[in-house]
Design brief:
alpha/beta, 236 residues, Carbamate kinase, nine-stranded mixed β-sheet, binds uridine-5'-diphosphate
Length: 236
């Protein structure tokens, strides 16, 4: 394995908050450093951020909110993570553009896929925010859609708290075992909960590999980009 030329990195909201609500600047700075290292190698990077450190629509629905409105709140939360990451990347001298699926001209460009590709070709990191701009989606699925449309070769998923895909949730089941590799058919038939099934299906149909890992492992992004063994590789 020789590594990848263009990757899409999906960062969970949880990692931005360091496990709490809001943003932990120290953590975001560390992530920015790791992304900067990758950019220096010449690999083109796009990022999709989650927003679970602010709001998850499904959780707010359980507490009595209208799902659609709650999902829009979720999408707005995601944008705050994008802006924080942009800030730390630019402090490191990495040119960055945020593109949002919900137009907000004062803080970000609108989502224009061809322009996003052009930014990456120029060495800029493109951060896709506000999810798909539509309720009822998760950012895991958005990551696949953006990776496909911007012609990335792989989706790298940070899943905070775990270092790959396990046969069951390792926090609840101590007998759970980690997979080094899986096919999409296996992942779907086992009903693995770590990822949205839609994300698995979309990757499978379009033959896009994914690597699932945890950011707790220092230098994880660079290792994944270089094609070193890390986390779990899921392939067609
Ligand atoms: N969301 C949405 N549409 C999208 C992407 C996200 O409605 O296309 C909302 C949804 O409420 C979700 C929240 O934004 O719960 C935060 O995203 P997600 O839960 O995927 O973040 P993560 O779990 O990665 O932190």
């Amino acid at each position: 394995m020789t590594g990848y030329n263009r990757v899409l990195l999906k960062l969970s909201g949880e990692v931005f908050g360091g496990g709490k609500v809001g943003i932990d600047p120290d953590v975001v700075q560390r992530i920015a450093h790791e992304i900067a290292e990758v950019v220096q190698t010449g690999t083109q990077v796009a990022v999709v951020t989650g927003g679970g450190n602010f709001f998850r629509g499904a959780e707010l629905q359980q507490r009595g909110m209208d799902r659609v409105r709650a999902d829009y709140m979720g999408m707005l939360g995601i944008v705050m993570n994008c802006l924080a990451l942009q800030d730390f990347l630019e402090k490191l001298g990495v040119d960055t553009r945020v593109q949002t699926a919900i137009t907000m001209g004062q803080v970000a460009e609108p989502y224009v896929p061809r322009r996003a590709i052009r930014h990456m070709e120029k060495g800029r990191v493109v951060i896709f925010g506000a999810g798909m701009g539509m309720p009822f989606f998760s950012t895991d699925t958005v990551a696949v859609q953006r990776a496909l449309e911007s012609r990335c070769e792989v989706v790298l998923y940070d899943k905070s708290g775990v270092d790959g895909i396990y046969s069951a949730d390792p926090k609840k089941d101590p007998s759970a075992t980690k997979f080094d590799e899986l096919t999409y058919d296996e992942a779907i038939s086992r009903g693995l909960q770590i990822m949205d099934q839609t994300a698995f299906t979309l990757c499978s149909e379009n033959k896009l590999p994914m690597i699932v890992f945890g950011m707790a492992d220092e230098g994880a992004i660079l290792k994944a980009v270089r094609g070193e063994k890390i986390g779990t590789l899921v392939h067609p």
